[in-house]
């Protein structure tokens, strides 16, 4: 039987025990979440996830988990794909009943970018478990324990598996780097274990964990916490991801993260096929069949082509070992590169990268992941644009107008960084602004869900479901726009991806499944001239019947 059966039967503690007892290396597949978040700007639609899911369920029964939710997927689904993230979860749960689902929870920031009131985080986790989520990887972008603990408690109360994460930065294999050394990680892991984590995660969000460092860190945590499963996450940005995951496995990691071959590499996770093949017929054999990986990869290769406009690695053609110097997480790396290239400032990118590590030091040398990575990136760009050196920033801090993310960071709105805020820079930047010296979410009043519900129902003139209410609690304006869009255009998630992204061509016929077994066939016949109201009449056949509709031509009206 698969790991989900074990989880259902044994509960989180029994599940963790069985994971520790298992002999081979276990894999989490990130293809449904982090791989496309890292390579395709999180744009993969439920339509394409659903189509392959029966195959996934049937052929990957022995996966430890399938990561398919959280991180940026929640926001992007509502904002850009016009689909409900909860519906995605429900459908995948039906199609894949046997593999544990895993999500990424940003601690007190849930699936957003700032702290929410505690009752929002609790209710969110509760609903996620009710809709089929099993394992929650919980991190905080500053490794700030109180923020992580809120998420841990919320997940624990909801009955989910708690996988608390250490966000990895620096290089434990370099004795000259003393801040983020083995002791730092051992102490943090100790706190997470004490707080009741079922699984310990090492989250290497920028792909900095070299093979030797992986070996050192995992062996030391393995020795200290013999009963806790260790789950290691990395990105393949420099190209050393497979080597690092094999080193982690040999040092005693129980689970590592991989993405299917055609969705792996560069800023994504290391290749599933490479790890599976490397361990075949060894003590760490994953038990996964390479032919199945190959067929799965073929599907994703074709699917990836549909999302070509969102390819993040068009500017980054190969691995990048300079991340060991600048420590920029993969998603941010391609973003900053794209911004610079599209402005014709490729040279400036080199400067931004150098400035990123200088900005990091100024801010106190912090872990960099959503949202702390944005603070460092904003500071670096601010310094490049204003031709500022670190010395100039320190001298002139009282008169400079820093990006708001930087000011908020120094106020303590993200939490407290390891080692504290650098002074006197903090005081100079804040100039007496309010500071938070404890967990910022603790001082937020609870969200009044009933009031939010009434106001949404009044505004949209219809009943608001529990899940839409939760989405609105996390992303108020994004959810408002999503609800308006669905009222106006209907369930666009039933369109195939080519049609969704590019629209219909004249004379092209398309089939849309409106409910199970019930399809509409639509064929566009002709598009009329622009009328004086800026609209065109579009003639089409609907199940063979001639119809027409007036559509505003927004392009022509620009
Ligand atoms: C996220 O927060 O979305 C990451 O992938 C770290």
Provide a descriptive summary of the structure in words.
With about 550 residues, this protein is an alpha/beta fold. The chain folds into four domains: about 5-165 and about 185-300, Aldolase class I (TIM Barrel, Alpha-Beta Barrel); about 315-440, Orthogonal Bundle (Cyclin A, domain 1); about 450-490, Arc Repressor Mutant, subunit A; about 505-550, pyruvate carboxylase f1077a mutant domain (pyruvate carboxylase f1077a mutant fold, Roll). Helices cover about 45% and strands about 15% of the residues. It is built from 23 helices and twelve strands. The strands form two sheets. Strands 1-2-3-4-5-6-7-8 form an eight-stranded parallel β-barrel, surrounded by six helices. A four-stranded antiparallel β-sheet has the order 9-10-11-12, with no helix packed on it. Helix 6 crosses helix 21 and helix 20 packs across helix 21 (about 465-475). The longest helix is centred in the N-terminal third of the chain and has 19 residues, at about 5-20. It binds pyruvic acid. Pyruvic acid binds near residues 71, 72, 104, 106 and 369.
Q: Topology, please?
A:
Blueprint: H1 3-21, E1 26-29, H2 34-39, H3 46-59, E2 65-70, H4 73-79, H5 85-95, E3 101-105, H6 118-130, E4 135-138, H7 145-158, E5 161-167, H8 182-194, E6 199-203, H9 211-224, E7 230-233, H10 241-250, E8 255-258, H11 272-279, H12 290-306, H13 323-326, H14 330-342, H15 346-362, H16 372-385, H17 390-396, H18 404-411, H19 425-430, H20 449-460, H21 466-474, H22 476-489, H23 497-502, E9 509-515, E10 518-527, E11 535-542, E12 545-552
Parallel strand pairs: 1-2, 1-8, 2-3, 3-4, 4-5, 5-6, 6-7, 7-8
Antiparallel strand pairs: 9-10, 10-11, 11-12
Helix pairs in contact: 3-5, 3-12, 6-7, 6-21, 8-9, 9-10, 14-15, 15-16, 20-21, 21-22
Residues 34, 37, 71-72, 104, 106, 205, 369-370 line the site of pyruvic acid (PYR).
């Amino acid at each position: 039987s698969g790991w989900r059966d074990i989880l259902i039967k044994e509960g989180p503690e029994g599940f963790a025990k069985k994971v520790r007892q298992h002999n081979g290396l276990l894999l989490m597949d990130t293809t449904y979440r982090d791989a496309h978040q890292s390579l395709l700007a999180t744009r993969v639609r439920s339509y394409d996830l659903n189509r392959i899911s029966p195959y996934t369920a049937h052929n990957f029964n022995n996966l430890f988990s399938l990561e398919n939710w959280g991180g940026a997927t929640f926001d992007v689904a509502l904002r850009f794909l016009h689909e409900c993230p909860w519906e995605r979860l429900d459908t995948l749960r039906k199609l894949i009943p046997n593999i544990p689902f895993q999500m990424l929870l940003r601690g007190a920031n849930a699936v957003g970018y700032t702290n929410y009131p505690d009752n929002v985080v609790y209710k969110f986790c509760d609903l996620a478990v009710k809709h089929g989520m099993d394992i929650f990887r919980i991190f905080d972008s500053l490794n700030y324990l109180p923020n992580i603990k809120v998420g841990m408690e919320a997940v624990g109360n909801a009955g989910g598996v708690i996988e608390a994460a250490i966000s990895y930065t620096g290089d434990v294999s370099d004795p000259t780097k003393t801040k983020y050394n083995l002791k730092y990680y051992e102490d943090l892991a100790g706190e997470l274990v004490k707080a009741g984590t079922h699984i310990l995660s090492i989250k290497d969000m920028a792909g900095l964990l070299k093979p030797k460092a992986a070996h050192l860190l995992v062996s030391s945590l393995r020795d200290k916490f013999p009963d806790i499963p260790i789950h290691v996450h990395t990105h393949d940005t420099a190209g050393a991801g497979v080597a690092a995951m094999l080193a982690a496995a040999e040092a005693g990691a129980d689970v590592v993260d991989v993405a299917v071959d055609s969705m792996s590499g560069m800023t994504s996770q290391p290749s599933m096929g490479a790890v599976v093949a490397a361990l075949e017929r060894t003590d760490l054999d994953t038990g996964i069949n390479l032919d199945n990986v190959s067929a799965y990869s073929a599907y994703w290769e074709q699917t990836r082509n549909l999302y070509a406009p969102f390819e993040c690695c068009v500017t980054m053609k190969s691995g990048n070992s300079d991340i060991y110097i600048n420590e920029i997480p993969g998603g941010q790396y391609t973003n900053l590169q794209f911004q610079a290239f599209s402005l014709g400032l490729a040279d400036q990118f080199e400067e931004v990268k150098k400035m990123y590590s200088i900005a990091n030091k100024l801010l106190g040398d912090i872990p960099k992941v959503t949202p702390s990575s944005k603070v460092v990136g904003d500071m670096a760009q601010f310094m490049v644009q204003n031709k500022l050196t670190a010395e100039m920033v320190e001298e002139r801090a009282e008169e400079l107008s820093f990006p708001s993310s930087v000011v908020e960071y120094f106020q303590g709105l993200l939490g407290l960084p390891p080692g504290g805020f650098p002074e006197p820079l903090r005081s100079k930047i804040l100039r007496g602004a309010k500071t938070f010296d404890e967990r910022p979410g603790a001082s937020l009043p609870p969200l009044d869900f009933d009031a939010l519900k009434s106001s949404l129902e009044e505004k949209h003139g219809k009943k608001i479901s529990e899940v839409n209410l939760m989405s609105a609690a996390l992303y108020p304006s994004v959810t408002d726009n999503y609800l308006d869009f669905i009222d106006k255009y209907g369930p666009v998630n039933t369109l195939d991806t080519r049609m969704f992204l590019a629209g219909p061509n004249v004379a092209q016929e398309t089939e849309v499944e409106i409910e199970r077994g019930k399809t509409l066939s639509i064929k566009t016949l002709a598009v009329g001239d622009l009328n004086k109201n800026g609209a065109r009449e579009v003639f089409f056949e609907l199940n063979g019947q001639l119809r027409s509709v007036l559509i505003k031509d927004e392009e022509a009206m620009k």
